[in-house]
């Protein structure tokens, strides 16, 4: 082996130039290098000699990158035998002071960063007056832009990569370092598939205020990726937002293949950055496109506040979750453009005004030409969505339904209108035509007669024929031809036949089989009218001579008769046939039909104008003169009450079955229901649009039917005056109309006769099927202490009062599953995850457990100090937590009932909620105004949230368990970051104490319930309102989102309703269910009143029954026939080209045929079938 030459002495080494090897005097510049510097056209001449040469402890292998200030070599560190990237300043020892300062800043900045996506710095040094530092060598030499080229349409992969880059930049920001030169070439792609941020050559320390960053007018950075403030040289305005812009520019290039702005020169690029917006990336998903646009906002304040926030939004996109960035509306884009180019914007505005002024005539002609096509739109413009609520509140349900039908016809995907319409129909009776309109071929000489069940109709024509019709088909089923003209007809269900009276004085019983049975009579004059008692026991017939009465069971026997001086004006039977009222203008009498004796004689004070007998036979009422209504008790003969009309004359009256309610109508438009005992009005406003022309009670006395000169028929509750059915309006010319209710008033026969011409029609109408609440009554119990629905939606749970029992029953069947006495008011009922065990907590601090399959207790009750307020069960069912008013939270083992932890939270605990991520964490809130997050396993306090100045009454976790929100008696709601304990956004102010709040399923919104009777939607990140105050009308106590987040429920002290989340408009009626008190605390047990899909709402707290409401939640497109159905129900349409009234009602027959062809799983069709009383195929 040859002998190695001796190493030169240190002073000799120092006298050699590190660049070219020439000998120089100590501390003197190299003359040869100076000559090269003066004559060379490229700085590479100074560096070429270094390649392959030793540089201190490094052997320089090859140049791999070069920038405006430095050059990077691939080098081998000899002592550690590893490859590194070595960066040195280009000018070397000739570099100026500013270049050296910037080089050192980069080295110092990069050395302080330790992140898996930032290239680490190994060593900083100086060799032979040449500053350098070394970094990890990233082999391959591929930039993120080169990696993205074949992945251009893999949007989720690009977003995931940029999220990592953003987190790396955020790491630098957190350590006070700005990059200021972010571009694709400064982000390397390593062999393991990870991005690596490098080149902090323009890095700035956020706390570095010494020295100038650059010379005046000098641009720091790469123009295509620079933010507007950076291009303008506004050094004092360069912040973390500048790097966010750079990240957005990189993302834009990865998605499009080119930077946001390119140009022929730096000045051209700079101008575009200030004045223009990047081209829209239409092929990119909207959320990712929106993120990119937000990063590239001209104003720093409009960008993401931090790189961390950008990273989180990108990660949300990758996970398929909604991003927080909101797309710019057209108006916002125009405004920002106008701010950038005010002169051009002013010119454009002036031009627009000129164009508009000059085009007025053209627009007028265009509008005239298209007016016919926009008739529907014009009709819609005459109303506002908010009007629907007012119409419903005023009882104008048909008007509301017609408007909703027009909205749906214009936009079948308007599911909000469909849902509101369904709620109206589900809770109100609309008249439905029960069969085809019967139009007799001959003129009828008596009013049509309907069977008590509403299924058959009897008519008598001037051709001496009596015909029986089937209501459902409209077909004639039987016919009887008489020898004499018919004068009166009647039907009986007992004898399966009909009674026919003729002009020759005969009365016969006819049936479809056999010969007619001629009845014996006492009088000989023709019968004018007849009637059968509701129980089918007696038949009465009135003629000019008097009243004849037959007992139907002995119909072949002669009748007994009654005659009054001056004739008989009216007669009626009680429902059971035991009482018979006869009267004329001077006197009246009530007869006992079994003894055939008069039990009451009455004489008119003025003149009897109308008289009625209650269906129960206990009371009788008369109009005596034009203003007095008098009611007598039949048994005692006592005058019970006298009611005086204050305005118009009274013409008609009716009694309910018991005779305890009197309905009076007259020449005016209004009806009034009086309480007979007190004489006081008990009804709401009951009115027609024009004078009332008839009034009669249903045979069972449950309802009253009125007809007015407004050609409308109303069916009213005989006791309350509430509307039983939306008015039946026909819209036909003035006519004679006969109205007859069925036994219970659910069906109404209407017989129209047009005056002056032969045109008769007979129709039968019945209210649509409704969805009243399914009520569960517990005898002797009322004003329950608690109520909830089980998590699986199968069981209803009640805390009974006053007996303090835990009560659980099946909602579908009413079968009682559990009924156990407890010590104290039942404040909570919880279930194990498998619903096999049930746990109860009481106000006096006791905890119970039961096996639901056997009903046996799981353990002896465990009672602890302090009253229990809220309680909750862990997601795994192993622990039950209870908040006591002694300032403690107690944790119980559900398998033994034993107390396992006691945690201190001063004050009275008001809220307990477990995190949805099943981590075991739970939150608590108290009267001390402080909230905590706890670890269930250890009882360790993980986080504390301070800021409220009054009691925290409610709280909730975000779906990702990263945030909590709290509501307080300080009239604010707040959102908190669980990891930091800090509030996010601003407080959400209200005008009164709050009751409850909840995160939306996507975590982007919070809805609050306030005691001032309003609810409101808020941005969960910023605390800004997303809606106006949503007027509920009464103190709001609970808000719940449906699982899809499309709607939310607001429960108030009078009922509940649903709202649309996106547009903050009501999408249902206000369902009435009043409560007697408030909650005063918050736990999931108290708020569990709705199934996740919102289709069932269970209410039991502070009311007297368990009430299960069914609410339809349509989604998607309504079928073409849906709007037609709504118009058919309300007999009204906004389309003036369509007929209304009876002609519109006939459309239901076609709809029924159409629905028979629907698919079994068709939601809209099944709902329609249920409404129309058809068999569903669910």
Automatic annotation (TrEMBL):
Keyword match Repeat: yes
One Gene Ontology term of the molecular function aspect: ATP binding
Limits of the Protein kinase domain: 58-318
Cross-referenced PROSITE patterns: PROTEIN_KINASE_DOM, WD_REPEATS_1, WD_REPEATS_2, WD_REPEATS_REGION
This protein's record includes keyword Repeat: yes
Keywords, alphabetical: Repeat, WD repeat
Highest taxon listed in the record's lineage: Bacteria
Classification via InterPro entries: Kinase-like_dom_sf (IPR011009), PQQ_rpt_dom (IPR002372), Prot_kinase_dom (IPR000719), Quino_amine_DH_bsu (IPR011044), Quinoprotein_ADH-like_sf (IPR011047), WD40/YVTN_repeat-like_dom_sf (IPR015943), WD40_PAC1 (IPR020472), WD40_repeat_CS (IPR019775)
WD repeat feature ranges: 453-479, 685-726, 872-902, 902-944, 945-986, 987-1028
GO biological process: mRNA splicing, via spliceosome
PANTHER family: PRE-MRNA PROCESSING FACTOR 4, WD40 REPEAT PROTEIN
Name of this protein: WD40 repeat protein
Species of provenance: Prosthecobacter vanneervenii
Taxonomic placement: Bacteria, Pseudomonadati, Verrucomicrobiota, Verrucomicrobiia, Verrucomicrobiales
């Amino acid at each position: 082996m040859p002998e190695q030459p001796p190493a030169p002495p240190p002073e000799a080494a120092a006298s050699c130039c590190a660049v070219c090897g020439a000998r120089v005097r100590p501390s003197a510049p190299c003359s040869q290098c100076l000559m090269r510097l003066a004559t060379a056209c490229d700085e590479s001449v100074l560096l070429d000699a270094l390649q392959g040469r030793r540089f201190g402890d490094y052997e320089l292998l090859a140049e791999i990158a070069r920038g405006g200030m430095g050059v990077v070599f691939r080098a081998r560190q000899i002592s550690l035998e590893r490859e590194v990237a070595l960066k040195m300043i280009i000018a070397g020892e000739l570099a100026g002071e500013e270049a050296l300062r910037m080089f050192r800043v980069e080295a110092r900045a990069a050395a302080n960063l330790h992140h898996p996506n930032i290239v680490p710095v190994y060593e900083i040094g100086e060799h032979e007056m040449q500053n350098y530092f070394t970094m990890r060598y990233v082999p391959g030499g591929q930039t993120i832009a080169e990696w993205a080229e074949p992945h251009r349409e893999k949007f989720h992969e690009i977003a995931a990569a940029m999220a990592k880059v953003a987190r790396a930049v955020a790491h630098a920001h957190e350590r006070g370092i700005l990059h200021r030169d972010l571009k694709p070439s400064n982000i390397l792609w390593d062999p393991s598939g990870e991005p690596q941020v490098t080149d902090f050559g323009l890095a700035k320390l956020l706390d570095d205020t010494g020295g100038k960053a650059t010379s005046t007018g000098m641009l720091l950075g790469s123009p295509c990726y620079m933010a507007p403030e950076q291009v303008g040289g506004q050094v004092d305005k360069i912040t973390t937002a500048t790097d966010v812009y750079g990240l957005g520019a990189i993302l834009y290039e990865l998605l499009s293949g080119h930077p946001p702005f390119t140009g022929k020169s730096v000045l051209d690029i700079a101008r575009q950055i200030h004045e223009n917006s990047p081209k829209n990336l239409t092929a990119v998903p909207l959320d990712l496109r929106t993120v990119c646009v937000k990063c590239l906002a001209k104003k720093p304040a409009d960008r993401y506040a931090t790189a961390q926030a950008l990273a989180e939004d990108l990660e949300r996109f990758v996970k398929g979750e909604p991003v927080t960035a909101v797309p710019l509306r057209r108006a916002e884009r125009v405004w920002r453009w106008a701010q950038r180019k005010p002169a051009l914007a002013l010119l454009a505005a002036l031009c627009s005004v000129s164009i508009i002024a000059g085009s007025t005539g053209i627009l007028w002609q265009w509008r005239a030409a298209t007016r016919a096509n926009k008739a529907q739109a014009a009709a819609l413009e005459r109303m506002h969505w908010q009007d629907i609520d007012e119409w419903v509140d005023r009882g104008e349900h048909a008007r509301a339904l017609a408007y909703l039908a027009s909205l749906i016809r214009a936009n079948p995907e308007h599911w909000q209108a469909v849902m509101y319409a369904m709620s109206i129909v589900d809770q109100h009776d609309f008249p439905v035509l029960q069969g085809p309109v019967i139009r007799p071929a001959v003129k009828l000489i008596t009013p049509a007669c309907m069977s008590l069940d509403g299924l058959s109709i009897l008519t008598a024509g001037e051709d001496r024929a009596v015909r029986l019709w089937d209501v459902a088909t409209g077909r004639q089923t039987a016919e009887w031809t008489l020898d004499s003209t018919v004068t009166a007809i009647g039907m009986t269900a007992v004898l399966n036949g009909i009674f026919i009276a003729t002009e020759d004085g005969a009365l016969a019983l006819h049936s479809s089989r056999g010969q007619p049975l001629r009845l014996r009579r006492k009088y000989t004059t023709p019968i004018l009218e007849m009637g059968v008692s509701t129980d089918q026991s007696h038949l009465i017939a009135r003629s000019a001579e008097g009243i004849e009465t037959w007992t139907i069971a002995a119909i072949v026997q002669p009748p007994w008769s009654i005659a009054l001086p001056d004739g008989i004006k009216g007669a009626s039977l009680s429902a059971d046939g035991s009482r018979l009222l006869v009267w004329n203008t001077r006197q009246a009498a009530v007869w006992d039909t079994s003894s055939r004796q008069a039990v009451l004689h009455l004489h008119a004070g003025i003149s009897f104008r109308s008289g009625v007998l209650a269906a129960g036979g206990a009371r009788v009422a008369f109009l005596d003169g034009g203003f007095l209504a008098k009611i007598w008790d039949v048994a005692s003969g006592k005058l019970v009450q006298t009611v005086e009309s204050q305005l118009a004359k009274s013409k008609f009256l009716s009694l309910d079955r018991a005779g305890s309610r009197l309905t009076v109508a007259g020449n005016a438009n209004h009806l009034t229901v009086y309480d007979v005992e007190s004489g006081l009005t008990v009804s709401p406003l009951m009115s027609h649009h024009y004078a009332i022309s008839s009034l009669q009670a249903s045979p069972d006395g449950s309802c009253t039917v009125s007809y007015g000169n407004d050609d409308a028929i109303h069916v009213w509750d005989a006791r309350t005056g509430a509307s039983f059915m939306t008015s039946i309006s026909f819209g036909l010319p003035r006519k004679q109309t006969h109205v007859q209710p069925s036994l219970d008033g659910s069906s109404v026969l209407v017989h129209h006769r047009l005056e002056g011409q032969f045109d008769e029609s007979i129709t039968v109408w019945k209210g649509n099927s409704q969805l009243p609440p399914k009520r569960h009554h517990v005898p002797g119990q009322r004003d329950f202490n608690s109520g909830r629905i089980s998590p699986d939606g199968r069981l209803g749970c009640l805390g009974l009062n006053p007996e303090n029992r835990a009560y659980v029953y099946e909602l579908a069947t009413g079968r009682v599953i559990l009924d156990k006495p407890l010590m104290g008011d039942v404040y909570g009922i919880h279930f194990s995850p498998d619903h096999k065990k049930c746990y109860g907590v009481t106000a006096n601090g006791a905890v119970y457990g039961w096996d639901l399959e056997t009903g046996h207790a799981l353990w002896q009750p465990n009672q602890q100090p302090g009253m229990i307020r809220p309680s909750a069960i862990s997601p795994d069912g192993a622990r039950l937590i209870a908040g006591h008013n002694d300032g403690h939270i107690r944790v119980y083992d559900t398998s033994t009932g034993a107390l396992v932890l006691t945690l201190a939270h001063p004050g009275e605990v008001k809220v307990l909620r477990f995190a949805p991520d099943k981590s075991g964490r739970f939150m608590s809130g108290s009267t001390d105004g402080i909230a905590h997050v706890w670890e269930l396993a250890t009882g360790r306090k993980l986080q504390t949230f301070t800021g409220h100045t009054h009691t925290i009454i409610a709280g909730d976790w975000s779906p990702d368990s990263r945030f909590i929100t709290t509501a307080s008696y300080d009239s604010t709601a707040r959102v908190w970051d669980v990891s930091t304990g800090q509030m996010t956004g601003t407080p959400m102010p209200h005008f009164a104490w709050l009751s409850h709040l909840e995160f939306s399923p996507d975590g982007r919104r919070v809805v609050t319930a306030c005691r001032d009777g309003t609810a409101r939607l808020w941005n969960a990140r910023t605390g800004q309102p997303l809606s106006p105050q949503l007027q509920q009308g009464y103190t709001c106590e609970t808000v719940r989102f449906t699982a899809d987040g499309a709607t939310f429920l607001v429960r108030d002290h009078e009922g509940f309703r649903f709202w649309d989340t996106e547009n903050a408009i009501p999408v249902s009626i206000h369902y009435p269910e009043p409560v007697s008190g408030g909650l005063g605390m918050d736990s999931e047990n108290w708020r569990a009143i709705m199934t996740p899909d919102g289709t069932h709402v269970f209410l039991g707290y502070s009311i007297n029954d368990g009430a299960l409401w069914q609410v339809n939640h349509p989604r998607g497109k309504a079928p073409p026939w849906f709007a037609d159905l709504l118009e058919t129900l309300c007999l009204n349409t906004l389309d003036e080209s369509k007929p209304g009234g009876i002609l519109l009602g006939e459309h239901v027959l076609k709809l029924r045929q159409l629905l028979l062809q629907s698919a079994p799983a068709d939601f809209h069709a099944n709902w329609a079938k249920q409404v129309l009383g058809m068999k569903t195929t669910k």
